[in-house]
Design goal:
Length: about 450
């Protein structure tokens, strides 16, 4: 067996694998012998099928399978042994492969086009300093958060007159007309005013119980989903509604503001976590600070990657990769689609190469608990930033169950995320980071500019 790599450029080459009969014949003979012992063929006792008969029936397919498997393994071994930074997958010369005479040839040659990234090294000590931000929690933000908590845990109260954010219950009716073949009548319509278009809000403001108002049904909401909710109809039915409707108000409800008392403290933060308003404000401030800290960390992650990409030169085989992307997507994307998204793909590929280089040269280990924490972090986002009694234990159980069931390849997905997080943490701890104190308004301006 002979394997050679002919370099076309610093990032592309032709990998050629040549097999002679002595390379593959022992494996082919071995497979034929195994077939003769296990084949169930009419007219022959089990285990007594002659090898010559198996050769006649299956010899060609066995030869093809063994040669292809041997070539595939040889290509992979060559790439690993020579530590080639292969990007994409080797592309076989299919035209040459189709011309192989499997019945008569004894020697087989396969050629692959391969793409590689240029050589590079990562010296984190030479990366320019990167700014990270310590965001100040203002009193206004604390008040805003407390107001939100009080509304979240407030109880519904009946109101006499509609204000912004109220829920209106009543009867919605449209008389039969030239465009409506039958009367439309919904006795339990529900209008969430917070979902009403801004330009239509005046229609409902100030309405009282027992009052009526007429409006164009399609002018109220920006989407059919909200209209379907209001009328109790499917989106398909709601989208077909048109013309003037009349709403008669029967009930108005409003989410009241919860009192600042122990009941609210326990509901928002967990049983007995705080016992007075001062402690409650301090805990809310802490939660806001943690949220700001996460935003600052996300921005730092982004800045670290951007700085690495800006300061490390990695050449890619662009034309090869575009060809490979077109092939593996099998007609799902056009050449124009590939061109449009290629820069973003190449950027992500370069960052993956940098991460792999850092990981291979560093002692980064992943524990099972790291994977569990990654699942838990995702689940916690569904519950917001506030704690509830028993929530932590419930999320831990749910996370472990998710990994145990492994639906949709969950273990692989969360393992990749956890490992990526480990590498990001390693990068941040090994580059020079300059901490800057800043208020939230200025931080938002910086983030908008960076992500733009």
């Amino acid at each position: 067996m002979e394997t050679t790599l002919d370099r076309i450029s610093s990032t592309q080459g032709k990998l050629k694998v040549t097999l002679i009969e002595a390379d593959y014949k022992p494996e082919v003979d071995k497979k034929i012998k195994q077939y003769s012992k296990t084949a169930q063929i009419k007219g022959f006792r089990p285990g007594m099928v002659p090898k010559e008969y198996i050769q006649k029936l299956h010899g060609k397919s066995i030869l093809v399978d063994e040669v292809i498997n041997m070539v595939s393994k040889t290509v992979n071994d060559y790439i690993a042994e020579n530590k080639l930074r292969v990007v994409g997958d080797p592309l076989p010369d299919n035209e040459a492969a189709q011309n192989i005479d499997w019945d008569n040839q004894k020697e087989f040659t396969f050629e692959y086009e391969i793409g590689t990234a240029s050589d590079f090294s990562v010296d984190l000590s030479k990366i320019p300093a990167i700014k990270t931000y310590d965001i100040t929690v203002s009193e206004d933000k604390i008040e805003e958060a407390i107001t939100d908590v009080r509304k979240r845990f407030g109880k519904d109260i009946e109101a006499e007159e509609v204000e912004a954010g109220d829920m209106i219950f009543g009867a919605l009716k449209q008389e039969r007309n030239a465009t409506q073949s039958s009367e439309f009548d919904v006795k339990d319509a529900t209008i969430p005013t917070e979902r009403v278009k801004e330009e239509s809000a005046h229609i409902f403001k100030g309405l009282e119980k027992g009052s009526s108002v007429k409006f164009d049904i399609q002018s109220i909401f920006s989407n059919t989903k909200d209209l379907g909710f209001a009328t109790g109809k499917t989106e398909e039915v709601a989208s077909a509604l048109s013309g003037e409707f009349e709403l008669t108000v029967e009930k108005i409800t409003r989410v009241g503001t919860a009192e600042l008392n122990q009941e609210l403290f326990d509901q928002a933060l967990g049983q007995g976590k705080v016992s007075n308003e001062e402690e409650f404000r301090a805990e809310i401030s802490k939660i806001i600070g943690e949220n700001y800290s996460r935003e600052s960390e996300h921005l730092l992650d982004f800045e670290v990657e951007k700085t690495l990409l800006d300061n490390l030169s990695i050449e890619l085989p662009d034309e090869f990769l575009k060809k490979w992307l077109l092939n593996i997507n099998e007609g799902k994307f056009t050449v124009e689609d590939i061109e449009k998204d290629y820069d973003a793909f190449a950027k992500g590929l370069r960052m993956d190469l940098i991460r792999n280089e850092v990981a291979s040269n560093s002692d980064i280990k992943l524990e099972y608990t790291d994977i569990v924490e990654e699942v838990k972090a995702e689940m916690k986002n569904y519950f917001g930033g506030y704690a509830y009694e028993g929530l932590e234990e419930m999320i831990d159980q749910m996370a472990r169950k998710t990994l145990k069931e492994n639906k949709d390849n969950a273990v692989r997905r969360y393992t990749d995320r956890a490992y990526g997080k480990k590498i990001r943490e390693f990068l941040k701890s090994n580059v020079e980071v300059e901490k800057v104190s800043i208020n939230v308004e200025d931080f938002n301006k910086i983030a908008e500019a960076v992500y733009a």
